[in-house]
From TrEMBL:
SUPFAM superfamilies: P-loop containing nucleoside triphosphate hydrolases (SSF52540). It holds the Pfam family Sulfotransfer_1. It comes from the Eukaryota. Residues 1-22 form the signal peptide. Belongs to the sulfotransferase 1 family. Gal/GlcNAc/GalNAc subfamily. GO terms for biological process: carbohydrate metabolic process; keratan sulfate proteoglycan metabolic process; N-acetylglucosamine metabolic process; sulfur compound metabolic process. This is Sulfotransferase. The keyword Membrane applies. It is found in: Golgi apparatus membrane. Its EC number is 2.8.2.-. The keyword Transmembrane helix applies. GO terms for cellular component: Golgi membrane. It is an enzyme of class 2 (transferase).
Amino acid sequence: MQCCWKSMVLLALASIAIQYTAIRTFSTKSLGLALTGHAVNCSLKDLTRLGQETLEGSDQGCDEILSHTSSSSPSVSLPSDSANKRTHILILATTRSGSSFVGQLFNQHPEVFYLFEPLYHVQLAVLPRLAQSRNLAERRVMLGAARDLLRSLYHCHLNSLESYIRPRPANHSTDKLFRRGASRSLCSPPVCEAPLGREVQSLVLADEGECARRCGPLNVSLAADACRAMRHAAIKTVRIPQISDLRALIEDPRLNLKVVQLVRDPRGILASRIETFRDTYRLWRLWRATGRRPHNLDLGQINTVCEDFLRSVSTGLARPAWLRGRYILLRYEDLARFPLQKTRELYSFLGLVLHRSVEDWIINNTRGSSDLSSRQKFTTVRDSAANAENWRVKLSFDMVVHTQTVCQPLFKLLGYKTVFHPRELRNLSHSLVEDRTFHPFF
Ligand SMILES: *[C@@H]1O[C@H](CO)[C@@H](O)[C@H](O)[C@H]1NC(C)=O
Ligand SMILES: *[C@@H]1O[C@H](CO)[C@@H](O)[C@H](O)[C@H]1NC(C)=O
Ligand SMILES: *[C@@H]1O[C@H](CO)[C@@H](O)[C@H](O)[C@H]1NC(C)=O
Ligand SMILES: *[C@@H]1O[C@H](CO)[C@@H](O)[C@H](O)[C@H]1NC(C)=O
Ligand SMILES: *[C@@H]1O[C@H](CO)[C@@H](O)[C@H](O)[C@H]1NC(C)=O
């Protein structure tokens, strides 16, 4: 009886400690717990793991308990994958910054429920005409709705999304979910029972449309069940400008939200947007073609990226208490050059175990791949390293100079190098990314 009571106290303390202070002292400090005169000396990391096990005989010290429990869990050397602590991940990005690639790092994990850009529907419903409103009041309305929806989605209340989908789903069933095919969980059993066979993953990834064609309308209730059955959830969005817009969610202890802020050289973002959003970036193409800057060019299109990045990254790097253990900064260029290493760092920060299928996916879809034909099917991901650099041959020197001038403070912060001559720009053996490591803080 006494033994169980002790276990309960230990578990309760562990969960309280984890909830409120774990991150701060996660791997460094130790916590001494004195239980009825009997000292148990476990680090919080140990406690996290202990919290998942049924403790027997907690008269032992922490080492003994751990050696006892670890005999039944062979994965002791892995970071503690807070088994009963659901982790919620937000990929905070902007368009053409490599967010689809980062999303796949979670989408490919069999225990992560992944949603690709659900806030698309909020924006469409709240601000139908404006891609990125710079009107503060409008922005605030949109952000309030976005935060509420994110919170609901992480709690798997997927029907909250229904009120933003047009036409409004009947009977919790819709074929209008934006980029459903980008989400593995929404295209595989039990959400989709279509006879996709064993190649379900590769089929879905080969062509997102395949999912909608073969799975029929999405049953939102089934999707919510699938979300609940997964250990963790990840959402990618390009519709939240800055980290401070997420503060209320980050500070919510029930949510356990961790943010991966993805940044990229704004010159790379610009080049990629010019290719992708042909209408909205029409005047930039004109500039490139004629060598003369159109007088009515919307410079805000790139200035906004730099301002949002600058504010957000400055906030993150200033290490405010509310971001402790909850913020990691990732440069797309680093991910492109060292995909496996950076992914391991990401998972380690999140406290999740990196799954073999994620590593396989990376190997298949980056420069490591030798099988070119299988790679060509992928639309969102090409050779990531080459892709990250190819802006250097696509932008005119004038456009590069313009961008690096307006984004100068950001370049300093993120370690992107300014070029002074076209020769420097086109010489790809001259790197424009300084070696920098942005450690998360705990
Ligand atoms: C707990 O561990 C720390 C660091 O390893 C040590 O300094 C301290 O004396 C230990 N406390 C107990 C009660 O064993
Ligand atoms: C919704 O379900 C009800 C009962 O199952 C059915 O009668 C109705 O036609 C359905 N509505 C739509 C729009 O499918
Ligand atoms: C969705 O799935 C639920 C649970 O299996 C089921 O009861 C419901 O009828 C399904 N809805 C539709 C429209 O098929
Ligand atoms: C990686 O490629 C191999 C060989 O083409 C394939 O069998 C495997 O399913 C792929 N894995 C992933 C996760 O894409
Ligand atoms: C290209 O850059 C490399 C590394 O900075 C330098 O050694 C080389 O001379 C440059 N080549 C040309 C043609 O400028």
